[in-house]
Sequence to fold (155 residues):
Amino acid sequence: ELTIGTCPIKDDVRSILDEYIQADGYIFSSPSYDMFCTALIKTFLERKIALTYKSREDFGKIPAARPGIAQNFMKKASFIVTANCEDYLEEVMGEPIYEAFEAHLLFEEIDTVQKLYCGGVENMTDEEFEVRLQKAFELGRNLVETIRQYRVANS
Fold:
């Protein structure tokens, strides 16, 4: 069983982390604000620090993957980033966010399946919105299928 550390902030993050741990896959999404994710998603990523709980005896030791948190890349994640900047600026506006997500997930040994950048949202036509919506749906479908295939191959 995974021990979740005690956070001095009294809110519902503990219950959110309990649900997070039970999930087989994740879709992280954020608009790009000044080439980074929103404060809300960044706060969530940082509050997952409770998953790194160590006993007092383990402080000062080289960290090792803890049972329960180290998933041996069994769990999967995909990312969606939206921005007012056009698609050709994905490297500038989207990549820093993908990297932030992946950095937080690396500790948990969670694989990235797919990334979707939706640029130009401010001036997007209804037709383009439908195309992007379908791409987001396919991202979710691909994530579920990847998890299913991994389970079959490793059962």
Remarks:
- The beta strands are 25-31, 76-82, 111-118.
- The longest helix spans residues 126-153.
- Confidence is low (pLDDT under 50) at residues 66-70.
